[in-house]
Amino acid sequence: MIERAVEDGVAPGVLLADSAYGNSSDFRARLRALGLHYAVAVAAQTGVRLLDAKGRPRKDAQSVSDLAWRIHERGGFRRCTWRQGTQDALSARFALRRVVAAGVPQREQEPLTLLIEWRDGEPEPANYFLISLPEGRTKRQLIRLVMQRWRTERVYEDLKGELGLDHYEGRRYPGWHHHVSVALCCYAFLVAERTRRFPPSARRAAEAHAQPLSA
Q1: pTM of the model
Q2: Which residues form the Transposase IS701-like DDE domain (predicted)?
Q3: Based on the domain organization, do 20 and 63 belong to the same domain?
Q4: How do residues 110-169 score in pLDDT, each as one tens digit?
Q5: pLDDT tens digits, residue range 56-77?
Q6: Residues 163 and 204 in one domain
Q7: Fewer CB under 10 Å: which end of the chain, C or N?
Q8: Residue 66: half-sphere exposure toward Cβ, Cα within 13 Å
Q9: pLDDT above 70 as % of the chain
Q10: Residues spanned by the domain of 131
Q11: Domain end: 120, 146, 172, which one?
Q12: Do 124 and 204 lie in a common domain?
């Protein structure tokens, strides 16, 4: 679907994905071959190599989990608030490091940003993200970017809870395709009606227009 979207001229954006996609080095490499940048979650055991002060990869690879603990021991995590929630401001502790992915062909290696999230009261980091965007963005900008996936999760929960997306029990693709298509069309109608009755503010409209792609 991503390849078809690119072929059809859909405006490119930063692609967001959970670790089910982000763990695949082939998936990440294909996105870059298509000219897309990504900000994807990866598993704790994902291997990386830190970049030195001159931007050269160090020889020793380590898991993002081990790296997070080393950063934690040195007091390298900093608190950041990325938006106001329904009740309180949403914040956690984060750390950034420039890395390359370990275990991938050298021709596919490129500098990446590793973003680590450690939530209050948790015994270990909650999330690890690899981001292919070049340097120049602030930590808060990168955090806000990866946190946009909550919109995808919210849509998925609404589709299941309100429109029965997960109620299909058939075994044939045409039936499944019809069921999903109807659910998505109904959801689009509900969103359009909600927007018509409760128009978003100019700021919210601008944010929605600039949303990244999500998988």
Answers
A1: 0.81
A2: 1-87
A3: yes
A4: 999 999 999 998 999 999 999 999 999 999 999 999 998 888 888 889 899 889 998 888
A5: 899 899 999 999 999 999 999 9
A6: yes
A7: N
A8: 10
A9: 93
A10: 2-146
A11: 146
A12: no
